[in-house]
Amino acid sequence: MTGLDKKRIVLLDLPVVSEYYQSLFDVAGIKPLIVATAQTTAMVHSLVGSVMGCSILKFRGNSLTSYAGEAAKIHPIKDAITPSRLMLGYKTEYKRKLTQTFIDRCQEYFNSSESEQYIVRSDLD
Fold first, then answer.
1. Tens digit of pLDDT for each residue in 47-97?
2. Best CATH choice for the domain 1-82 from the list 3.30.70.260, 3.40.190.10, 2.40.50.180, 2.40.10.120
């Protein structure tokens, strides 16, 4: 990852997310040049597609093309990084049937092969 300290970075600027990415840079001893921040992945794709810089995302989106029609390329990070976890929270005292239905559907989806499309693997090089 040492090449990133010379790269222009577009940072997904969301609570917890930006801190996670900064921790990756810190662990690697990188001081990136953050040229833009965005609060949506669509905006990150647009900024990367318009050659503002590169970015790090923990998942692959539905498309590698921005809304403006610009293409982006995926390069999986092969170095060991701290994995992220997807979690669902709710207050047990307010749990309704609708909440349980949502939990069940989330578990079904993420245990299905359909969710695999969002995982970036090194075989995409």
1. 888 888 888 887 766 667 777 777 777 777 766 666 667 788 888 887 789
2. 3.40.190.10
